[in-house]
Design goal:
The protein has 310 residues and is α/β, with parallel strands linked by helices. The chain folds into two domains: 109 residues, Rhodanese-like domain (Oxidized Rhodanese, domain 1), CATH 3.40.250; 181 residues, Vaccinia Virus protein VP39 (Rossmann fold). Helix content is 37%, strand content 26%. The strands form two sheets. It has a seven-stranded mixed sheet with strand order 7-6-5-8-9-11-10, with helices on both faces. Strand 5, helix 8 and strand 6 form a beta-alpha-beta unit. The radius of gyration is 22 Å and the shape is elongated.
Length: 310
C-alpha cells in the first residue's frame, strides 16, 4: 500500500520537468494563498489544492501542466485530480524550491546560449592570466574545467599537452569551444551539463580549474565538495573568481563583469571552508585589470587560490 502512495505522490524526474519548463508548461502552485505570497516560482499561478476541482477550466488547452507544493504531496493529489478529469500531460514538480531551481537554470541556460551565440568570443580566446601562470609551474596531466563557456582555458591547457575535460550548461558555449579547439589543432572533451547532473569518476583528475565559476549561495559549498571529489589526492586546485569587493567595481564600470548578486561573489574564508581538505600554497584577494573579451574589462577584485588536495 505504501508503494502505491509513494508512486502517486512522487515528484517527476527533473529532466522531464526541465523539458516541460523549456516548452512553456503551465506552472501551478497548489499551496495556500498565504504560502504562495511568502514565496513561489516566477510565472506560476496559485490554485490551492482544494480549488483545483472547481477551477478545471483554468487548465484547459494547456500543452503541459506542472503542479507543485511544499513537499510534493499536495501536488501529487492535484495531479491525480487533473488526470481523473482527462488532463494527460501533468507533471508533479515536487517542492516549489525544486521547480524554482529548474526555472532558474533554464533561464540561465537561455541567457548563456544567447551570449555565446554571438560570432565573436565574448570572453576572448586567450586564457586567464592566473591560470596560465599556474599551469606553467606544474606537470601536465588530466584537468577539469567546470562552467567553461567558450573554452578558452581548456583549449589553452590542451595546447600545453593537458588532457582537457570541460562542461557547461550552454550548447552554444560548447559549439564555440570546439571551434576554438579546432582552430588550435587540439581536442577537448566537453559535456553539456549543469552542476547537479555532471558526473565523473572520483579521484580521476590531476587538476581542477575554477575560473569565474560562480554558484548560488545555497548550492556553492555542495558543488565545491562535489568537484573536489573528482580530484585525485595530491591533485591541484587553481581558482580565480570575483570577490564581494567587486560590487564597487561593477557600480563604476558595467563591463567589469561578474554576478550582480552579492551572494554569488566569493568570500575568502568561505572558500577556505569549502575546500577545507586542501593545503593552500596561495590564497589571497587581489586587484587586477582584466582584458578578457568584452565582458571582463577593467579593474576587478578577485580571489586566487592555488592548493593541493590532501
Amino acid at each position: 500500500m505504501f508503494g502505491i502512495f509513494k508512486n502517486l505522490f512522487a515528484p517527476t524526474d527533473n529532466s522531464e520537468l526541465r523539458e516541460a519548463i523549456k516548452n512553456g508548461a503551465f506552472l501551478v502552485d497548489v499551496r495556500t494563498p498565504a504560502e504562495f505570497s511568502a514565496g513561489s516560482v516566477k510565472g506560476a499561478v496559485n490554485i490551492p489544492l482544494d480549488k483545483v476541482q472547481s477551477h478545471l477550466s483554468k487548465f484547459k488547452n494547456k500543452k503541459s501542466i506542472v503542479v507543485f507544493c511544499r513537499s510534493g504531496s499536495r501536488s501529487g493529489q492535484a495531479k491525480s485530480i487533473l488526470e481523473q478529469n482527462g488532463f494527460q500531460y501533468v507533471i508533479n514538480g515536487g517542492t516549489w524550491e525544486n521547480v524554482n531551481q529548474a526555472v532558474s537554470e533554464e533561464t540561465m541556460k537561455e541567457f548563456w546560449d544567447e551570449r555565446y551565440s554571438r560570432e565573436e568570443f565574448v570572453y576572448g580566446v586567450n586564457p586567464n592570466e592566473y591560470l596560465k601562470a599556474k599551469l606553467a609551474e606544474i606537470p601536465v596531466g588530466k584537468i577539469l574545467f567546470p562552467a567553461e563557456g567558450e573554452g578558452r582555458n581548456a583549449v589553452f591547457s590542451a595546447t600545453l599537452g593537458w588532457d582537457a575535460f570541460a562542461f557547461d550548461l550552454s550548447k552554444e558555449g560548447k559549439n564555440k569551444a570546439e571551434l576554438l579547439a579546432q582552430r588550435n589543432g587540439v581536442q577537448i572533451a566537453y559535456k553539456i551539463s549543469d552542476m547537479e547532473h555532471i558526473s565523473y569518476p572520483e579521484n580521476s583528475f590531476d587538476a581542477l580549474a575554477l575560473v569565474y565559476a560562480h554558484f548560488p549561495l545555497e548550492n556553492r559549498r555542495e558543488y565545491h565538495k562535489k568537484l573536489s571529489s573528482f580530484l585525485k589526492k595530491g591533485g591541484l586546485l587553481v581558482l580565480e573568481g570575483f570577490s564581494k569587493k567587486h560590487l564597487e567595481n561593477q557600480k563604476r564600470n558595467p563591463k567589469a563583469g561578474g554576478p550582480k548578486n552579492a551572494e554569488m561573489l566569493y568570500d575568502l574564508n568561505e572558500l577556505k571552508s569549502d575546500f577545507e581538505k586542501f593545503d593552500f600554497t596561495e590564497c589571497y584577494e587581489a586587484e587586477t585589470n582584466l582584458t578578457e573579451g568584452v565582458y571582463h574589462v577593467g579593474k576587478a577584485s578577485v580571489i586566487r587560490i592555488f592548493a593541493t588536495k590532501n
